[in-house]
């Protein structure tokens, strides 16, 4: 499917955190939406207003954009782009922070990749289950 200006605008309206065209250029959004269209095949139904296909595409695209931003930030600060994980524990002086870190099985990791690392990816996984488009198909 062609990713039109109307689809880009609808995405930016749905996830307003991606509305800033300087931070999130149209070319990046279009590329993410193209990938999202590929990930949401025929089992997701047709792309139309308020459809599960639309919501799945937008969640997947938002995930890809968020992960890309994280990757660029790490590289721009001299780091190596690798698989990111949430902080599990960190202490500085009297302050400490801990987050729950998911422990997926190997099969889940293969099926879902990094989708569990953003709220958008988790939403995509929830919608994928509803669409009957499970990750592992025979």
Description:
The structure is a single chain. The protein is mainly alpha-helical. 49% of the residues lie in helices and 4% in strands. It contains five helices and two strands; from the N terminus they run H-H-H-E-E-H-H. It has a two-stranded antiparallel ribbon with strand order 1-2. A hairpin with a 2-residue loop joins strand 1 and strand 2 (95-97). Helix 3 (52-76) packs antiparallel against helix 5. The longest helix is centred in the middle third of the chain and has 25 residues, at 52-76. The radius of gyration is 17 Å and the shape is globular.
Beta percentage is under 5%
What's the total number of strands?
A: 2
Structural class: mainly alpha
**Separate helix tally:** 5
CA radius of gyration: 17 Å
What is the number of domains? 1
- Report how far the terminal alpha carbons are from each other: 25 Å
Query: What is the approximate shape?
Result: globular
Strand order of the largest sheet: 1-2
Instruction: State the low-pLDDT regions, or none.
Output: none
Largest β-sheet summary = 2 strands, antiparallel
* SSE pattern, N- to C-terminal: HHHEEHH
How helix-rich are the residues, as a percent range?
40-55%
On the 0 to 100 scale, the average pLDDT is 85
